[in-house]
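Protocol step 4 of 6: record predicted structures for both targets in the notebook before any analysis. Target 1:
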Amino acid sequence: MSNCDNCGERPSAKQKINCKGCSKAFHANCIKIQESQIQAYSSGEFIWLCDICSDKVTSSKNQLSPMADFETMSEIRDTLKAILDQQNHFIQKLEKHNTQINHLESKDLEHEAGIQENRENIEKLELKMKTIMEKNNILRQKCNKIQQNSMNNCLVVTGVPQPKNENVFLTTQFIGSALGMRLAESHIANSYRIQGTDRKYSNLIICFAKQSYRDEFLKCRKTKRDFSTKDLDISLKNLVREHNTIYVNEYLTAYNKNLFLKAKEYKNNNNIKYLWIKNGSIYMRKLEGTRAVLITSENDFHKI
């Protein structure tokens, strides 16, 4: 261990500091450096020069020796090479990411094209479905019209009591007589009972041989406004304890019957004054003097 170049005494390891230029040892106290700073100088974190070496550096205007210059340039080249290698590595990574991005963008364009194609197909299917539904609605209305035409000679009589072992034609004659119309067998094509909404009575369906007979029967019912079970033959009116009104209506298809109920609801909710059925067709009129509208579907309601 070298002696202190300043005082000549040998410094301890904790107090010793070496000049970076001449490598001579010095006491920290001799050169006025705190012991806590010695570790920083020893580790190379800071460089300390003695007065002589410091003067030499100053006099040479901070010029390094050729060897020092060589070592500095070598370090710079090594640093630059490391930076360039790292830069090339980043460039390669960036190119790889760009390739992946381009691939994803290409896939995205494919998906976008597929989505657009699906949208167009959906629009075509919706248009096709709309066309099919319109055609189906037209066919339904045509079938309903054919069915209704086949039932135009028929009437529904509601509220007539049904005796046991009933002769339906005889009951029909009793009703005709009560209305003031004599019904012969030639007037009636068929008559039968079906269960109606009122479970107490089954509806009586009367199919007339001609529409003129049906119209006359309807006219008689309209004339006798207070027609009820009390007007029937004694064999029928004795079947009930309390007399009830007897209604006579045109016989409608299931479609027209449902449409009429909806039309009735629309009439009540929209201040429509007139709603009626004629020859199996439903008509609606908002006010007296306005035009009558034929109702074939719910779409016709807005025409009122």
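Target 2:
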Amino acid sequence: MPVDPRLRLHRVVVPLSLAAGAITLGSFAVLPLTGLLPGGATAALLVLGLLFGLLVLSARDACSVLTWLVVLLFLVPQPFVLVGPLKSVGNPAGLVALGALAIWAASRVLGLIEAPELHPVRWTLLGFSVAALASYGAGLTRDLTAGEAASMDRVVFQHLALLGIGLLAVDGLGSRERITTLLQRLVMVGGLAAFIGILEFVFSAFDFRSMMLLPGLTTSAELDSYSRSGFDRIAAGASHPIEFSVVTAALVPLAMHFTIHEQSGRWKYWLALLALLSALPLSVSRSGFLTLAVGVAFYVAALTNRGRLNVLVLGVIGLGVFRAVVPGLLGTVRGLFLNADTDPSISGRTEDYAAIPGLMQDHWLIGRGTGTFVPDVYFFLDNQYLATLLQGGLVGLVVFVALHLIGLGVARGVRRRSTDPELRSLGQALAATIASLGVASFFYDSISFRQSAFLLVLAIGCAGALWTLVRDEPKRHHRDAPTGARLDHQIGR
């Protein structure tokens, strides 16, 4: 009888669990000193201590490790790093991701993880990392500025972190129950982050970043405020409002899935979905709305005609309510699209694209070097595909596109092979999240932002883990869409 992966990983994950427990105990140890800390910092410290305590008491498996990652990714502002010599590499979520890579490697060496040898997601992730390392080597062959060299070293750790998340998810989750649990936690934590953004918009005195600047943390970048057309743009724990909007929008298909299929506690997912949809316009970002449109369209394609109509009606009602509550904001967002052809921020950046062929001379194969295209030295691209071409060459671009296509393929494969309506819907939701993030990469440097980059590989890893469970099932052509029927029943005929 095969051993439960949670038990097999126990020996590797326990040290990380003990570290989390130490942090929890440390948070309570400072209770006598709470008078020396600002009230917001004290509250944030205790909340994080509670979260870590709950996680320590959970199962010692890949799901718990990735849950820690999600909590730190969304609830600790991304510009924050540990005090010390690590600087930007010392981001808490990034360190857990690097730990995930170590756990995966140790588990594979010790034989604690039994996984298919020819899994397409695993090999694509490894190819993505090899291409990045080859590009790193190419960067070392030319004269680099100090900014380019520092950025190149920093981005290597980012790629290792991405590799750790994807590999631990695809090989370590092991069961449908743990995959579903992780995705449910992802939606709930994402909904909490969206609610924090709403508080930032409603209450000008609410400063989440200042509140979360806990002892032992410092900032690796200036904490800028953003505004557009008279509206303050929210970011919550993200690095920028664009990243906040894209990640928020990409989580909507998963939230829709759980509102439809979760049998107990469905109200939690309705609240998370409402928070995600309400927070998105507050970022005043074109990219977020485009991401939302792609994700929802991809997921709604799996519904019946009646289900699609219900979504459309609820969407129109929601827009009307939002317009009444926040007058003028939707008009501002509409203007961003209607006036895009005259927007100087867009035209200026597209004009810079003419310099790309010259920069690529003699670097078409493996690029100019991973992480070397620094905006302060060159210019802003706001296009991850072009950034990947410049830094990783044609090899890097092909592997980056393949990462999205393989992720989409295994997510859709779950839907095509499974006969369980709930599992088919979850596969479609993951495909929608991956597709929406892939389209968003045309409009900003998605891999340069930790939340969007980590979410992409986490979604691909979860899709790959589900595909492992159904890979031996034959593909089927389903004539109906039970997901839509369930939605019809919930909303009313």
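Step 5 preliminary note on target 2. The radius of gyration is 22 Å. The longest helix spans residues 384-417.
Proceed to step 6 after PI sign-off.
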